[in-house]
Amino acid sequence: QVQLVESGGGLVQAGGSLRLSCAASGSIFSINAMAWYRQAPGKQRDLVADIASGSSPNYADSVKGRFTISRDHAKNTVYLQMNSLKPDDTAVYYCNANIHPRRGAVYYSYWGQGTQVTVSS
Q1: Is the dihedral of CA 23, 25, 30, 35 positive or negative?
Q2: Tell me: the pLDDT tens digits for 72-96?
Q3: DSSP states of 92-116
Q4: Residue 74 CA from chain centroid, whole number
Q5: Beta strand pairing status for 67-72 and 58-59?
Q6: Strand, helix or coil at 84?
């Protein structure tokens, strides 16, 4: 079993900052990639940023220059530093990870439970 546990969401004023964390635990041999998605009410879940082993981070155009994704491989943790937040950033943010549970196995995609980010104007 694998679990992704997110933390760091909350209420912040426009222009403020938040840092999200997502820690993976359980049966983990290796992690291909980790990512953050978000879903606003009535909208689809969209990719915010992802980071794969040996690759440069990838960002949605709407967050480039404001958000930074990073990983701590030793802790199986991914972070999302969010600066200059806007009301349009309000959403539930979900962590995603592609994880090999053991050597030689295919990877499986896992999701966290989501954390609410609300940006007031």
Answers
A1: negative
A2: 999 999 999 999 999 999 999 999 9
A3: EEEEEEEEESSTTPPPEEEE---EE
A4: 17
A5: unpaired
A6: coil
